[in-house]
Amino acid sequence: MSRSLLRSVLELRTPITRLPPPFLLPIRAATAAPTPARTLTTTTQNIDSAAPPTSPAPAQTSIPPTTAPPSNPNSNSAPPAPARREATAASDASVKELLPLLRAQPGHYITAHIHGFPYLVTPGDQVRLPFRMPGVLPGDVLRLDRASVLGSRDYMLKGAPWVDDSLFECRAVVLGTESEPLRVKVKTKRRNRRAQRVTSKHKYTVLRISELKILEP
Protein backbone atom coordinates (compact mmCIF):
# COMPACT_ATOMS: atom_id res chain seq x y z
CA MET A 1 0.00 0.00 0.00
CA SER A 2 1.40 3.37 -0.87
CA ARG A 3 2.15 5.89 1.80
CA SER A 4 -0.28 8.47 0.51
CA LEU A 5 -3.15 6.03 0.71
CA LEU A 6 -2.17 5.02 4.26
CA ARG A 7 -1.99 8.64 5.30
CA SER A 8 -5.50 9.39 3.96
CA VAL A 9 -6.95 6.40 5.81
CA LEU A 10 -5.43 7.52 9.08
CA GLU A 11 -6.80 11.04 8.65
CA LEU A 12 -10.33 9.66 8.17
CA ARG A 13 -10.13 7.61 11.36
CA THR A 14 -9.02 10.54 13.62
CA PRO A 15 -11.83 12.94 14.70
CA ILE A 16 -11.71 16.45 13.32
CA THR A 17 -10.87 18.84 16.16
CA ARG A 18 -9.95 21.84 14.09
CA LEU A 19 -12.59 24.52 13.62
CA PRO A 20 -13.57 25.68 10.16
CA PRO A 21 -12.36 29.08 8.99
CA PRO A 22 -14.08 32.07 10.63
CA PHE A 23 -15.91 33.18 7.48
CA LEU A 24 -17.84 29.84 7.58
CA LEU A 25 -19.03 30.22 11.21
CA PRO A 26 -22.58 31.56 11.88
CA ILE A 27 -22.91 35.25 12.77
CA ARG A 28 -23.67 35.80 16.47
CA ALA A 29 -24.48 39.02 18.29
CA ALA A 30 -21.65 40.03 20.57
CA THR A 31 -23.16 40.37 24.00
CA ALA A 32 -20.89 41.76 26.62
CA ALA A 33 -21.13 40.14 30.00
CA PRO A 34 -22.29 42.54 32.71
CA THR A 35 -19.39 43.67 34.87
CA PRO A 36 -19.99 43.66 38.59
CA ALA A 37 -20.42 47.15 40.06
CA ARG A 38 -17.62 48.42 42.17
CA THR A 39 -18.51 49.35 45.72
CA LEU A 40 -16.65 52.06 47.57
CA THR A 41 -15.96 51.40 51.19
CA THR A 42 -15.28 54.42 53.38
CA THR A 43 -13.70 54.13 56.76
CA THR A 44 -15.05 56.46 59.40
CA GLN A 45 -13.56 57.17 62.75
CA ASN A 46 -15.67 57.00 65.87
CA ILE A 47 -15.37 60.42 67.50
CA ASP A 48 -16.38 60.68 71.12
CA SER A 49 -18.90 63.47 71.50
CA ALA A 50 -18.00 64.03 75.13
CA ALA A 51 -14.36 64.84 74.46
CA PRO A 52 -13.79 68.31 72.99
CA PRO A 53 -12.00 68.48 69.64
CA THR A 54 -8.32 69.03 69.99
CA SER A 55 -6.68 71.35 67.54
CA PRO A 56 -3.00 70.93 66.69
CA ALA A 57 -0.75 73.25 68.61
CA PRO A 58 0.83 75.94 66.46
CA ALA A 59 4.50 75.47 65.79
CA GLN A 60 6.65 77.81 67.82
CA THR A 61 9.49 79.41 65.92
CA SER A 62 12.23 81.16 67.81
CA ILE A 63 14.08 83.98 66.03
CA PRO A 64 17.73 84.10 67.08
CA PRO A 65 19.01 87.52 68.12
CA THR A 66 20.82 89.36 65.38
CA THR A 67 24.48 89.79 66.11
CA ALA A 68 26.92 91.92 64.17
CA PRO A 69 29.48 89.89 62.20
CA PRO A 70 33.00 89.93 63.57
CA SER A 71 35.20 92.54 62.06
CA ASN A 72 37.81 91.18 59.68
CA PRO A 73 40.91 93.36 59.45
CA ASN A 74 41.75 91.90 56.02
CA SER A 75 38.38 92.76 54.48
CA ASN A 76 38.00 95.76 52.17
CA SER A 77 34.70 96.89 53.67
CA ALA A 78 34.35 100.61 54.36
CA PRO A 79 34.69 101.66 58.03
CA PRO A 80 31.58 102.88 59.83
CA ALA A 81 30.66 106.54 59.75
CA PRO A 82 31.93 107.48 63.26
CA ALA A 83 35.37 105.95 62.62
CA ARG A 84 35.59 107.70 59.25
CA ARG A 85 34.68 111.03 60.82
CA GLU A 86 37.31 110.56 63.53
CA ALA A 87 39.95 109.70 60.89
CA THR A 88 38.98 112.74 58.82
CA ALA A 89 39.14 115.00 61.86
CA ALA A 90 42.54 113.60 62.83
CA SER A 91 43.91 114.12 59.30
CA ASP A 92 42.57 117.68 59.21
CA ALA A 93 44.19 118.39 62.55
CA SER A 94 47.53 117.00 61.38
CA VAL A 95 47.36 118.99 58.12
CA LYS A 96 46.63 122.23 60.02
CA GLU A 97 49.51 121.53 62.38
CA LEU A 98 52.19 120.44 59.89
CA LEU A 99 51.32 122.43 56.75
CA PRO A 100 52.85 125.67 58.13
CA LEU A 101 56.11 123.80 58.67
CA LEU A 102 56.01 122.58 55.06
CA ARG A 103 55.40 126.14 53.86
CA ALA A 104 58.32 127.49 55.86
CA GLN A 105 60.86 125.15 54.29
CA PRO A 106 62.32 125.97 50.84
CA GLY A 107 62.55 123.65 47.87
CA HIS A 108 58.92 122.85 47.25
CA TYR A 109 58.04 120.19 44.70
CA ILE A 110 54.84 118.67 43.39
CA THR A 111 53.82 115.53 41.50
CA ALA A 112 51.31 116.88 39.00
CA HIS A 113 49.21 114.65 36.76
CA ILE A 114 48.64 115.91 33.21
CA HIS A 115 46.35 113.75 31.07
CA GLY A 116 47.06 110.77 33.35
CA PHE A 117 50.90 111.14 33.23
CA PRO A 118 52.65 112.01 36.54
CA TYR A 119 55.44 114.63 36.52
CA LEU A 120 57.56 115.58 39.56
CA VAL A 121 58.38 119.23 39.01
CA THR A 122 59.66 122.31 40.84
CA PRO A 123 59.24 126.00 39.91
CA GLY A 124 61.21 126.83 36.75
CA ASP A 125 61.24 123.30 35.28
CA GLN A 126 60.29 122.60 31.68
CA VAL A 127 58.05 119.66 30.89
CA ARG A 128 57.98 118.10 27.44
CA LEU A 129 54.71 116.24 27.10
CA PRO A 130 54.87 113.16 24.82
CA PHE A 131 51.78 114.31 22.94
CA ARG A 132 50.23 117.43 21.50
CA MET A 133 47.88 118.98 24.04
CA PRO A 134 44.64 119.93 22.30
CA GLY A 135 43.09 123.38 22.63
CA VAL A 136 46.15 125.32 23.82
CA LEU A 137 48.25 128.04 22.21
CA PRO A 138 51.72 129.36 23.02
CA GLY A 139 51.51 131.82 25.93
CA ASP A 140 48.49 130.25 27.63
CA VAL A 141 48.66 129.84 31.40
CA LEU A 142 47.38 126.55 32.77
CA ARG A 143 46.57 125.75 36.37
CA LEU A 144 47.54 122.23 37.39
CA ASP A 145 44.99 121.31 40.05
CA ARG A 146 45.51 117.54 40.17
CA ALA A 147 48.47 116.42 42.28
CA SER A 148 49.20 113.30 44.29
CA VAL A 149 52.24 114.50 46.29
CA LEU A 150 53.15 117.91 47.71
CA GLY A 151 56.38 118.26 49.66
CA SER A 152 59.44 120.15 50.77
CA ARG A 153 62.86 119.17 52.11
CA ASP A 154 61.62 117.36 55.27
CA TYR A 155 57.84 117.13 54.88
CA MET A 156 55.57 115.51 52.35
CA LEU A 157 51.79 115.57 51.96
CA LYS A 158 50.28 112.62 50.08
CA GLY A 159 46.77 112.63 48.68
CA ALA A 160 44.24 109.82 48.73
CA PRO A 161 44.37 109.79 45.76
CA TRP A 162 44.64 113.58 45.19
CA VAL A 163 45.73 116.47 47.36
CA ASP A 164 43.06 119.06 48.03
CA ASP A 165 43.47 121.76 45.38
CA SER A 166 42.72 124.48 47.95
CA LEU A 167 46.08 123.79 49.66
CA PHE A 168 48.33 124.64 46.71
CA GLU A 169 48.48 126.67 43.53
CA CYS A 170 50.55 125.47 40.57
CA ARG A 171 50.63 127.27 37.22
CA ALA A 172 52.35 126.39 33.93
CA VAL A 173 52.94 128.45 30.78
CA VAL A 174 52.66 126.88 27.33
CA LEU A 175 55.92 127.58 25.48
CA GLY A 176 54.87 125.97 22.20
CA THR A 177 54.83 122.73 20.27
CA GLU A 178 57.82 120.84 18.91
CA SER A 179 58.15 118.06 16.38
CA GLU A 180 60.88 115.50 15.97
CA PRO A 181 62.72 114.95 12.65
CA LEU A 182 60.96 112.82 10.09
CA ARG A 183 61.68 109.14 10.65
CA VAL A 184 61.40 106.56 7.89
CA LYS A 185 61.19 102.88 8.69
CA VAL A 186 61.26 100.14 6.06
CA LYS A 187 59.04 97.19 6.95
CA THR A 188 59.49 93.90 5.12
CA LYS A 189 58.05 90.41 5.39
CA ARG A 190 59.57 87.03 4.76
CA ARG A 191 59.17 85.54 1.29
CA ASN A 192 57.80 88.85 0.08
CA ARG A 193 59.74 91.21 -2.20
CA ARG A 194 57.51 94.16 -1.40
CA ALA A 195 58.90 96.68 1.13
CA GLN A 196 56.71 99.20 2.93
CA ARG A 197 58.05 102.62 3.97
CA VAL A 198 56.42 104.00 7.17
CA THR A 199 57.03 107.64 8.12
CA SER A 200 56.43 109.18 11.54
CA LYS A 201 56.86 112.68 12.94
CA HIS A 202 55.61 113.05 16.53
CA LYS A 203 54.67 116.41 17.97
CA TYR A 204 55.17 117.50 21.58
CA THR A 205 53.91 120.26 23.85
CA VAL A 206 56.41 122.11 26.04
CA LEU A 207 55.34 123.62 29.38
CA ARG A 208 57.25 125.65 31.96
CA ILE A 209 56.29 125.60 35.63
CA SER A 210 56.02 129.29 36.45
CA GLU A 211 54.52 129.28 39.95
CA LEU A 212 54.09 126.88 42.91
CA LYS A 213 52.59 128.18 46.15
CA ILE A 214 51.57 126.40 49.34
CA LEU A 215 48.40 128.03 50.66
CA GLU A 216 47.11 128.19 54.19
CA PRO A 217 44.61 125.49 55.20
TrEMBL record:
- Where does the record locate the signal sequence feature? none
> In the record, what lineage is assigned to the organism producing the protein?
Eukaryota, Fungi, Dikarya, Ascomycota, Pezizomycotina
Family per UniProt?
Belongs to the bacterial ribosomal protein bL21 family.
Q: Which SUPFAM superfamilies does this one have?
A: L21p-like
Q: Where is the composition biased (Low complexity)?
A: 43-65
A Pfam family this chain is assigned to: Ribosomal_L21p
Taken from the UniProt entry, a GO cellular component term is: mitochondrial large ribosomal subunit
InterPro entries referenced in this protein's UniProt entry, alphabetically: bL21-like (IPR028909), bL21-like_sf (IPR036164)
Protein's UniProt name: Large ribosomal subunit protein bL21m
Segments of this protein annotated with the region Disordered: 43-92
Task: Say which species the protein is native to.
Answer: Monosporascus ibericus
Q: What GO molecular function annotation could you give as one example from this UniProt entry?
A: structural constituent of ribosome
